[in-house]
Amino acid sequence: xxxxxxxxxxxxxxxxxxxxxxxxxxxxxxxxxxxxxxxxxxxxxxxxxxxxxxxxxxxxxxxxxxxxxxxxxxxxxxxxxxxxxxxxxxxxxxxxxxxxxxxxxxxxxxxxxxxxxxxxxxxxxxxxxxxxxxxxxxxxxxxxxxxxxxxxxxxxxxxxxxxxxxxxxxxxxxxxxxxxxxxxxxxxxxxxxxxxxxxxxxxxxxxxxxxxxxxxxxxxxxxxxxxxxxxxxxxxxxxxxxxxxxxxxxxxxxxxxxxxxxxxxxxxxxxxxxxxxxxxxxxxxxxxxxxxxxxxxxxxxxxxxxxxxxxxxxxxxxxxxxxxxxxxxxxxxxxxxxxxxxxxxxxxxxxxxxxxxxxxxxxxxxxxxxxxxxxxxxxxxxxxxxxxxxxxxxxxxxxxxxxxxxxxxxxxxxxxxxxxxxxxxxxxxxxxxxxxxxxxxxxxxxxxxxxxxxxxxxxxxxxxxxxxxxxxxxxxxxxxxxxxxxxxxxxxxxxxxxxxxxxxxxxxxxxxxxxxxxxxxxxxxxxxxxxxxxxxxxxxxxxxxxxxxxxxxxxxxxxxxxxxxxxxxxxxxxxxxxxxxxxxxxxxxxxxxxxxxx
Length: 598
Fold this sequence. Notes:
Blueprint lengths: L44 H25 L4 H16 L11 H7 L21 H12 L4 H8 L1 H22 L1 H12 L2 H6 L6 H20 L3 H17 L6 H14 L13 H23 L17 H9 L10 H16 L4 E3 L2 E3 L6 H9 L2 H9 L12 H17 L13 H8 L3 H5 L4 H13 L2 H6 L30 H11 L4 E4 L13 E2 L7 E6 H4 L4 E5 L2 E5 L12 E6 L2 E6 L4
Parallel strand pairs: 3-4, 3-5
Antiparallel strand pairs: 1-2, 5-9, 6-7, 8-9
Helix pairs in contact: 1-6, 1-7, 2-3, 2-4, 6-7, 6-9, 6-18, 7-18, 9-10, 9-11, 10-12, 11-12, 17-18
């Protein structure tokens, strides 16, 4: 875009720069020109489309393997019943911790099964009520419980495929057709993305809508039209309806706009604006206003306009904010949205559960937690490509800012703001597709390098899928070689053991012809639904014991027993660590042999 051009009555800007052209600055000192991004059409468009469909198909198949094999995880257990309750009642008071969009989308296929749903619970702490509700939902629907989650995961899988498509298109726009395919290949065989795109949780879907919003904003700035502005506001609103961490997009959009203005871009909605900078900022405000309207509509305008004094906040942040604003101020946000934000903010300030990092428990967390999850849970070849990408010397596409800056800011914000709720790489999931787009810049760079370097890159590309192919269906507990075969000694919770392993326990019992087994299961699902006869392990009862990694390392949580959730105290099952490990079943579950005393 030429920042100094203006549009005439025909709507065409004189001297406008095509959106995909690169910056034109030449290297200093008379050195050879840097490689530029090729924008010529792909020579075999049908072949490119076929490759895209093949890669997205492979991704879907890998997701389907885990979708069938993983039992409901801790968050799915509460998300899916809540989403179905929203569909039936339009009451968003159950599990307001995050917005309803993805929970509702996941619950849509359940309308074909018509499961029974009860009233919301009125007992227990507000933090545990979603899981009490989920337990009641499970008890009412035992006969179809597994099918409920198989269907509920399909919409999230579809969003995972959509996210892969965005990665391909955005990388292609920035760096060319071959780069788009390389970025998509990185996406299709990334174990962490496969893991979360087949679960009925909000992380993969939120990443899809966040990237859609960023991509839409980049396209609007490149060519500001009313249609693109509307699409940008809609995409940003959908991101806000997906997950509360999408609120980070507002300051990120603001910073992106300021950087774009500083480098000369102008994106006013009205052509020929006499004050293009003010017009550009006005367009940004309009995008924000549209996103709030989408958010309000998603909540059916419940509580919109309530005075500030009608809320009773618990988090320090909202309490202080409310103290400096007039109580009569009408809040243009949904009531359940604010209440959910208050709950999540309180967890962030105080820490809900201890986090496990490099073999140690802490309630303070560590700012290094999320970078460490990337270090240990990213295939090494992909990690090497990410580290090399910033050093690829080429003329930077102007749109690259909208990938690189959010990537850095999202990782930094998560590390600094959310380190007390460090439960898994899923909290920084949007960073992964952004990094996959960014690595596309290696392709035009490598095309100008030596034949030996290009062959080495192709060899690495050929080997890369092995990480996902060897891991499946255990993609949730994937760790790279740096973990030395025991990722659970570095990071656990949803990085490793999220309650997904009950079918693996049942398969082991069938294989070993066991009709009963000791079990310490980190999760909320009744093992009996999968035909597992079990009891809690005891030191005075020898035999084979299946134990979830979280409990093996002393996590204090709850589990299901006797028709209800029962608390598990800290280190309740850590005594099992001293017994020999018989087998790792996958899905976060170990089998140990408890020997008789004597």
